[in-house]
Structures are given as structure tokens and as C-alpha cells.
Amino acid sequence: MQPSHDRLEQARQDYEQHLRSCRQCGADGTQCPVAKHLRRLYNNLARAGR
């Protein structure tokens, strides 16, 4: 179970890092398509880990 937890944690970190560094996400407070994709990836991994 540990590898899937590591993947979930990495997906969360990737998403949060993107939000901090993306000019488009930071400019108007809405998420760009890349942020939406990363959030979807995280949610899919979280759902699969239940």
C-alpha cells in the first residue's frame, strides 16, 4: 500500500507546486487547464486508494 500512498502524495505536491508557480493560476485566481488536470489526477488516485 505504501507505493500508492507515495504516488498520491506526489500528485498532491505536484498540484500544489503548480498552483504556487503558475502565472495564469495566480493572476486571476482561476485554475488553468494544467492545474485542472493535476487535480483530476490526484482525485483519481485518491479514489483508487480507498
Secondary-structure blueprint of this entry?
Layout: H1 2-21, H2 23-28, H3 33-48
Helix pairs in contact: 1-3
Describe this structure as you would to a colleague.
This protein has 50 residues and is an all-alpha fold. Helices cover 84% and strands 0% of the residues. It contains three helices and no strands. The protein has helices at residues 2-21, 23-28, 33-48. The model has no long low-confidence stretch (mean pLDDT 90).
Can you give me a brief rundown of this structure?
The chain has 50 residues and is an all-alpha fold.
Structural class: mainly alpha
The helix tally amounts to: 3
Average the pLDDT over all residues and give the rounded result: 90
- Nearest-angstrom radius of gyration? 12 Å
Number of strands: 0
Keywords summarizing the entry:
50 residues, mainly alpha, 3 helices
